[in-house]
Amino acid sequence: MPSHTYLSKEEKSAPGHKVSKERLTLHLRCNASGDFKLKPFFVCLAENPRALKSIFKSQLPVIWKSNQKAWVILMIFEDWFNDHIVPAVERYCALKSLPFKVLLVLDNALGYPQSLSDMHPYVKVVYLPPNTTLLLQLMDQGVIAKFKAYYLRRTICSALRAVESNQELILKQFWKAYNIADAMKNIASAWDEVKMTILNGAWKKLCSF
Question: Among 48, 109, 174, 202, which residue's CB has the most CB atoms within a 10 Å radius?
């Protein structure tokens, strides 16, 4: 969310509230042609937050995981790889009548295992060189920037709609009520909005089509 605001001349200070301490790690993955996006991978602090009470995690628009620091640790990554990445890509290949042979490109994040070569016979893993995130990391070639812009637009529109529909509601109250479930819905919608051309263009520095 925006970290700054403007004051009118009549105001001496902006009324505020404590910023939520909720933190999360979000992973976005797609294929090189840009016609296949994995569900956003969502690592949160709480395993069962109050905002998701009575909601089955299998029905969420994201893949939900949690740990005490909201980090992607080795166990979480291996679960994501085996239970989500491999089955989803296998279904995509079957739908497109393609052989199930996958090249998975990863950077050198701490939560990634040093070797995934033995985890699946049809998935080859390539690690990007250290300190090349801005130059080569695929999601950093405009994809994350677009996604953040779409997420911000959707969230601000939600705030405006809420305030306009309820004249007694002020913006500060909306932000206080905004929770991890609301963020998750906007994340999924923003990821759906990222176009195929943006995803495909992210690969131009590594390979050409």
Answer: 202
